[in-house]
Amino acid sequence: EVQLVESGGGLVKPGGSLRLSCAASGFTFSSYSMNWVRQAPGKGLEWVSSISSSSSYIYYADSVKGRFTISRDNAKNSLYLQMNSLRAEDTAVYYCARDWIYNGEPPGYWGQGTLVTVSS
Amino acid sequence: QSVLTQPPSASGTPGQRVTISCSGSSSNIGSNYVYWYQQLPGTAPKLLIYRNNQRPSGVPDRFSGSKSGTSASLAISGLRSEDEADYYCAAWDDSLSAVFGGGTQLTVL
To answer: What distances in angstroms separate CA B11 from CA B7, B14, B42, one per listed residue?
Structure first.
């Protein structure tokens, strides 16, 4: 069974940093692209970033480019999101999500999410 | 403002058939596959439809998807109270990003 468990969320001040982690299990992690998708309170889903299976291809939404960094450690079956220069508008539940079957398409498996709150 | 356009709300009575539309452009829906998700309150999204009209194992055949040009639709037949949820469409965009619709809140009357 595919399992994705996010951690690292919390309260941070504007301008601060936070690192999210996602522990994956139940599948061959190194074979799949991974994504971060966020959802602001009461709002819709917003794609944040994607990373290919070998980290060769990395993409970001314009709203986080230059501030967030996605990475992965295939030996540890883990996905990360380093978030710097955080703003109030980054407040959201952040979901770790795996491609369904096909790389380069929207995700199919989702974690339960971790809440990031940016506030003074 | 979401890249893909969905109606903010939809409703139907038990047993009825409802459809939710999703409109995009040539760079996303027009040239890539559409996915649909169901999100129950307080939970993570769940994949309902992939590659326009394919259902993952375990998803009832009451749910169906279609695509034509730069638009897609999700149809739910035999509406049930447990179908009350938010529904989102998504697609990959040729600008190398994933794009989502703003979501449709389905109410079962």
So the answer is: 11, 10, 20
